Amino acid sequence: MDLTTRQNQILKALVEEYITTAEPVASEQLERKYNLGVSPATIRNEMATLTDMGLLKQPHTSAGRVPTPMALRFYIDHLMQEKQMSLADEVAAKEQVWDSRLDFDKLLRQTALALAARTKVMSIVATDSGDVYYAGASNILDLPEFFDIDVTRTLLSLMDEQQRLHQLFFNRTYGPDPIHIIFGQELGWPYFDPVGMAFTYFNSGSHAKGILAVVGPCRLNFPYVIPTLRYFSGLVNELTANW
C-alpha cells in the first residue's frame, strides 16, 4: 500500500494517540500535539482519504477516527519504532524467572507473571502438549475495551478451552515474522472484536514447543510489547536449551 509521506505521518500520529487514549482521534488533536506542519483542515482531508482506503473508521457517535486492524498492521510493519527493554529491565526480568530455571512448570508460570507485569495486560504461556498458564487478568479490567462484561467473559473463558487455544496457536499457519499479531475482528468470534494478541514461539530443549502471548485490546502498546516478547522468548530458549 503506497501512502504519501504526509499520510504516513498522520497515520502514525493517529495510531499512537489511539494506543494512548483509547478514544477516537480528531484532526484538531493531531494538529495540536504532533507538530505535523499542516492545518486541521488538511489533516481532516487526509483522514478522509485514509478512511476511504480502509485504514481508518469513524464510530457513529464521534467526529474522530480510529485505526482499523489493517492500519494497525501497516503501523507495525512500516511506521513503528520499537522501544527496547532497558538493560535494567532485562536483568530484572531474568532475575524474576532465574530461580525457576530447573523446573519447567514453574519456569512457564513465572514467565507468565513476569510478562504480564511488564506489559500491563494479560499474558498466556502454553505448550503444544496442553499446558496453559496465564497471568494479569486483573490488568485488563482497567482498560475501557473490557468494561463490556461480554468481552471480558469471552476472553477469560477462552483460558479454560485448551482445544480452542491449541487450535489458535498451534494449528493455524502464520507468516514468517517471529512475532505474530492477531486481531479479534479477524477471528470472527462473538464479542472478540476489541481484543488484540501478540505472540511468539519458543522451543524448550527436549520439552514441548510453546507460545508466549500478550493479550489485551487491539491497541496494544506494540512498540514495547513486541521487543518484550522477543526478549522473553529468547530467555526461555536460553534457560531450557540444555534440558
Description:
This protein is an alpha+beta fold and 243 residues long. It has two domains: 75 residues, Arc Repressor Mutant, subunit A (Orthogonal Bundle); 154 residues, Beta-Lactamase (2-Layer Sandwich), CATH 3.30.450.40. The chain has eleven helices and seven strands. The chain has a five-stranded antiparallel β-sheet, sandwiched between helices. A two-stranded antiparallel ribbon has the order 1-2. The longest helix is centred in the last third of the chain and has 19 residues. The protein starts with a helix and ends with a helix. 37% of the residues are buried.
Using the alpha-carbon principal axes, give the shape: globular
CATH homology superfamily of the largest domain: GAF domain
Q: How many helical elements?
A: 11
Spatial strand arrangement across the major sheet? 4-3-7-6-5
CATH class descriptor name of the largest domain: Alpha Beta
Radius of gyration: 19 Å
Report on the biggest sheet: 5 strands, antiparallel
Mean pLDDT: 94
**How many separate domains?**
2
Total strands: 7
Listing every helix as H and every strand as E from the N terminus to the C terminus, the arrangement reads: HHHEEHHHEEHHHEHEEH
Distance between the termini: 45 Å
- Beta-strand residue fraction: 5-15%
Supply the helix-strand structural class: alpha+beta
CATH architecture of the largest domain: 2-Layer Sandwich
The poorly predicted ranges are none
CATH fold assignment of the largest domain:
Beta-Lactamase
